[in-house]
Each structure stands twice: as C-alpha cells, then as structure tokens.
Write a structure and sequence with these properties.
CATH topology of the largest domain: Rossmann fold
Distance between the termini: 27 Å
Order of helices and strands: HEEEHEEEEEHEHEHEHHEEHHHHH
Shape: globular
Helix content: 25-40%
Strand content: 15-25%
CATH superfamily of the largest domain: P-loop containing nucleotide triphosphate hydrolases
Number of strands: 13
Strand order of the largest sheet: 1-2-3-5-4
Structural class: alpha/beta
C-alpha cells in the first residue's frame, strides 16, 4: 500500500510539471477544498499529498503557488513562508486583530482584553481596539489606558454611524479579523462598515439552518477599497484567548509598554511582579505604565507559573 501511494504521488508530480503555475491567496477553505484568488479568478483547489507527509495544512490567508487545471480548478503546489498563523481560528498572515469591546452593557473585562492582546503580540499580529456603545458611557477611562500603552484605539457608536468610517479606513490594504464576545456590538459594527459581508454571512447561515456564529469555515471577504476581512466561526474573545500558551519568561515581551524598562531592573530574571529594584514596578508607581495593565500581567504570570512542561510540549506538537 505504501509503494502504491508513493507511485500515485510521483504520477501527480509528473502530471503537474507541465501545467501553468499561478500565485494567489487562499480566501476560503471548506470540505477539503481551498479557494485561491489569483488576479480576478478564484480557483477551486486540492492540496497535494506532500503536505500531509510533512504534517502541514494550507490555511486561509496563505499565499500559495498553484498548478492550474481546466475549468478554474487546480492543485496547491507550494505554500509561501508565513509571517504568522493561528490554529483557532485557522488563519495565516493576519495583519491585525480588531477587538470589539463595549464600554457598557456589558462593561469591559480588562483581564480578557489583556490576555487577548498578549496572544496577538506573541503571534506577531497587530492588536487594534474598538470601543463600542460610546453613546451609553464615556470610553475615555478605557481608551486612554490603551492609547498610552501604544495601541491604536477607536471609539464608535454604530447605530449613529459615529467613528465607523475611521475603522473602515483602517482596514484598507490589510488582512484583518474581528473578535468580540456576545453583546459587544461586533455584528452591528460589521453591518455598518461592510454590509456585503454581513449579508453574505446571513444568507449562508439561513441556507445551512445554523446561526450566524456557528459557521464552520473561515473565509476572507474582499473590501472594495482594498484589503480583506476574515469571517470566522465562533471567533469570540474567550476562544481567541485560548489560542496559545504563553510561557512566564515570554510574557514580559507581550506587554509592549514594558519594553523600555526590561533591561533596567536590578536583578537578571526579574519577574516584574514584586521585586525590589524592578524598573517596571517603578514605572507603574509613577503612572507611566497603567496599573490595570500591570495587574493583568501579574495575574497572567501567576497562571503561567502553573503550566506544566507536558502542556508546553503538547502545544509545540
């Protein structure tokens, strides 16, 4: 059986070698098929068996080379180098993660926000924070903290179309994904800035008989002004928070406002939690680093200390 499989793979390569090649972007993956946009054409592709041999799977957002068959079909021939990738949701080469957080009904969960930011930072994805329902409460107590920490922050009221144009402009030329828990106003925001995405998602959900947020595939939708928005299944802040494990030694690098102080601590290997002579703690005490951010760091550090080695090994498999 093994010899037969190898021969089939050899035949596949022989058949492909003379086929025209195209480079493109995977914009959808479902049922073992990958839909690759190259220029104005979207090709329905299968992945070659060689990827299974190397325990690699193409992801939405991957830049790939395909061998083109008749009738706009093809094989994924090669996956280009990724700058980042996520397992849940399955996405590659994400430029920015837009966190949609309501300032009222419900109020923000600061720890979850900071965990989500840390995961994005670890993965090399730019975190962007959009505070919604700003007609119900003053967003400044929250937005000032994150602007001071060095993040792009937007304040919107989708129902009154306030601030949404700025969010739309921020998506141009980038691959972006939105996340937000139920009630945060993510759907209202998407409806306002990208009606076509919401309409498509609603139609798919109706056809399949499932709710909007139980879609089972990830897909990129193209903005008319350039750029792509990822529509992802069940992409809440709580789920994104579980994407990866951050070691306690790596956590300090996931808080960007700590960076100027990391080499100024009195002791090597400072945890930045309670040590004397810690430059990070001094910055917290003088108000340079927001106290709420450091509190989240300390809670995450304590959680990271409880992680067992076998969990770290499993994460790397």
């Amino acid at each position: 059986m093994k010899e037969r499989k190898n021969k089939n793979e050899q035949n596949e390569i022989i058949e492909e070698k003379d086929l025209p090649k195209e480079e493109g972007l995977i914009i959808k993956a479902t049922g073992g098929f990958y839909y690759v946009r190259s220029g104005e054409i979207t090709y329905e592709c299968r992945a070659r068996g060689v990827f299974r041999k190397h325990d690699t799977s193409p992801l939405v957002g991957d830049k790939v080379t395909i061998s083109v068959l008749p009738d706009e079909k093809g094989y994924i021939h090669a996956i280009h180098e990724r700058k980042n990738s996520l397992v849940r949701p399955p996405l590659a080469n994400l430029d920015q993660l837009i966190m949609v957080v309501s300032v009222a009904e419900p109020v923000p969960n600061i720890l979850v926000m900071d965990k989500l930011i840390a995961v994005a930072e670890q993965q090399g994805v730019e975190p962007v924070i959009v505070f919604t329902k700003c007609d119900l409460a003053d967003p400044k107590p929250y937005s000032d903290v994150y602007r001071k920490a060095g993040f792009r922050v937007y304040e919107v009221c989708s129902l009154e179309h306030k601030g949404t144009d700025e969010v739309h402009d921020m998506l141009k030329g980038r691959i972006s994904a939105f996340c937000g828990n139920s009630g945060a106003g993510k759907s209202s925001l998407l409806n306002d800035i990208f009606p076509k995405l919401s309409l498509s998602t609603a139609e798919i959900s109706k056809k399949l008989g499932r709710g909007r947020h139980t879609t089972r595939h990830t897909e990129l939708f193209e903005l008319e002004t350039g750029g792509w928005v990822a529509d992802t299944p069940g992409f809440s802040a709580i789920e994104m928070e579980r994407v990866g494990i951050i070691r306690k030694t790596e956590l300090q690098y996931c808080f960007r406002e700590f960076e100027p102080y990391l080499l100024k601590c009195r002791f090597t290997g400072c945890s930045h939690v309670s040590e004397k002579g810690c430059a990070v703690l001094e910055a917290v005490n003088d108000g340079t680093i927001p106290e709420s951010r450091h509190k989240s760091y300390c809670m995450m550090y304590e959680e990271a200390k409880q992680i067992k080695e076998w969990e770290l090994d499993k994460e790397n498999v």
